[in-house]
Amino acid sequence: MMTYNLSEAKPFIAIPVGEYILDELKARKMTQKELAAALGVPASRVNEAIKGKRPLSATLALRIEEVIGIPAHILLSLQSQYELDKARLKAKEKKEADEKNDYDVKRRNLLDAIGQFIDACHASGHKVPEELTHLQL
After folding, report:
1. Which residues, in sequence order, are CB contacts of 93 under 8 Å at separation 6+?
2. pTM of the prediction?
3. 94 vs 21, 80, 98, 106, CA distance in Å?
4. Could you state, in order of their start, the residue ranges of all structural domains in the chain?
5. Is 116 helix (H, G, I), strand (E, B) or coil?
6. Helix (H) or strand (E) holding 109
7. 125: which DSSP letter?
8. CB 61 within 8 A of CB 32
9. What is the pLDDT of residue 114?
10. What gap in Å lies between CA 39 and CA 70, rounded to an integer?
11. What's the whole-number average pLDDT of the chain?
């Protein structure tokens, strides 16, 4: 039986903590504006946190805990996971871009070398090997 190491899990997407808060608001039939008023913060701050544009601070997490009951340590844990997932996704994208760039460079170098070899064959009067005559460089 194969075991799976959860520490090697790679995120598919990063989910901001605000998604969980938004789900709770919907369940309570509460708007973001109502939450902001209850928290004593601008509605824009709540909206930015919900959309993941602003990290959730410990102070705001404590206020949310008081107003809607989601424990602050859970909210901050979700915020931390979101930040880690974003970093992992960014690193994955960079690695893929680097690998693609490496492939493109090696491909270009190989095609250049083949072209030089074919030119050398022509210049020296040697026949170009059959397997190279059908390549489109």
Report:
1. none
2. 0.67
3. 31, 21, 6, 18
4. 13-90, 94-133
5. helix
6. helix 72-124
7. T
8. no
9. 87
10. 13
11. 89
CATH architecture of 13-90: Orthogonal Bundle (1.10)
DSSP per position, 22-80: HHHHHHHT--HHHHHHHHTS-HHHHHHHHHTSSPPPHHHHHHHHHHH---HHHHHHHHH
Residue 14: how many CA atoms within 13 Å on its side-chain side? 19
Q: Per-residue pLDDT tens for 66-92?
A: 999 999 999 999 999 999 999 999 998
Give the pLDDT of residue 7. 65
Tracing tokens 């040697």 back to the chain, one arrives at: 126
CA distance 54 to 93: 22
Amino acid code (one letter) for 64: I
